[in-house]
Structure formats: structure tokens, C-alpha cells
Amino acid sequence: MGRPSGGNRKEEILEAGLEVFAKKGYYNTTTAHIAEKAGISQPYVFRFYKTKEVLFIAALDRAFERILDAFKKVDAIPEQLVENMIDAYDKLSERHPNEIALQVIGISVTEEAIRNATQEGLTSIRNYTLERFKDAGIQNAEREATTFLARGILCNISYFLELPELIDGKNK
């Protein structure tokens, strides 16, 4: 079995980063942890990602891109748009659960570059959602888009903290 090409290796490092950052957080993760998960040497990580911060931002960008892609694939009549977008996000979350954690972690990191990447990602999702809601003729699209994102963030926090009663109101 041959060694994966550079492009595949970069992808493997990114996916390993997603998993390790999701489990350990930004501050507790080292590039050595990511290298171990990817089955490579630590210096090889730096061949593709100059710093841990650059790798985290790439992983965070991947999470936001997947959300946007999932939303763009939703084909629904206006009355079912919100519900179908929620379903699309639920399915995405099942396939890529580490990305839920990564979004929550991204919100908590204070480094400027990561804050900027988090702001850009959330803004792109909000802008897309708002335009989609407006195009569908959803009443009070601005408020509905804000509520949609707020509930999504609350769902992510609930999942991340293993605290489902934040969403369903039932105690553990």
C-alpha cells in the first residue's frame, strides 16, 4: 500500500485536527497530539499548517463550509424550509459530530485570528440563512434568521455539554 499523496495527507491532518481539537479543546491540544492521531511525525504537520492556530482555523472553516453546503442542498417549499434546514443540520451533526464541538470551542477562544474566523463563519451562515428566508418569503426574515441561529448555537452548547435539558426542558 502506497503512501497517500500530499493533498490526501493534508486532508488527513485536517480531519485529525478536527477530532483532537473537538476532544481536547484548542488550548489543551498540541500539534504532537494531532500528528499522533494522523499517524505522522509532528514536523510533518508543519509542512502543511505553519502553526496550531492555522490548523484550527482550517478545521473551523471546514465546519462552517459543511454547514453552508448542507443548507444549500435543502430543497423545500417555503413552509418547510426552516424544518428542512434543521433536519439537514441534524444529519450533518450525526455525520460530523466533532464539528459541533469545534464551533463551541471557536466561540470561546480569545486569539484574534480565531475570533475573526469564528465571526466570519457565523456571519456567512447568518447571511446565507437570512437571504434564503427572504427569498422564501418568510415573515420577519431578519428575526427568524436570528432565532434560527440562536437555537442552533444553543443546540450545539447543549450537545457539547451533554446537557439536553437546555433544549428539551427535561432533567437528566
Describe the structure.
This protein has helices at 6-24, 31-38, 42-48, 52-72, 81-95, 98-108, 112-135, 141-160, 165-168. With 172 residues, the protein is mostly helical. The protein has a domain at 52-168: Tetracycline Repressor, domain 2 (Orthogonal Bundle). Helix 2 packs across helix 3 (42-48). It is elongated, with a radius of gyration of 18 Å. 26% of the residues are buried.
Beta-strand percent range: under 5%
Q: Catalogue the unreliable spans.
A: none
Quaternary assembly: single chain
Number of strands: 0
Q: Class by helix and strand content?
A: mainly alpha
Report the CATH C-level class of the domain at 52-168: Mainly Alpha
What kind of sheet is the major sheet?
none
Number of helices: 9
Briefly note the CATH topology name of the domain at 52-168.
Tetracycline Repressor, domain 2
Arithmetic mean of pLDDT: 91
Q: For the CA atoms, what is the radius of gyration? A: 18 Å
Please give the share of residues in helix.
over 70%
Q: Give the termini separation.
A: 48 Å
Spell out the blueprint of helices and strands:
Layout: H1 6-24, H2 31-38, H3 42-48, H4 52-72, H5 81-95, H6 98-108, H7 112-135, H8 141-160, H9 165-168
Helix pairs in contact: 1-2, 1-4, 1-6, 2-3, 4-5, 4-6, 4-7, 6-7, 6-8, 7-8
Summarize the entry for a quick read.
The protein is mainly α and 172 residues long. Helices cover 75% and strands 0% of the residues. The protein is elongated, with a radius of gyration of 18 Å.
Please give a handful of descriptors for the protein shown.
single chain, 172 residues, mainly alpha, Tetracycline Repressor, domain 2
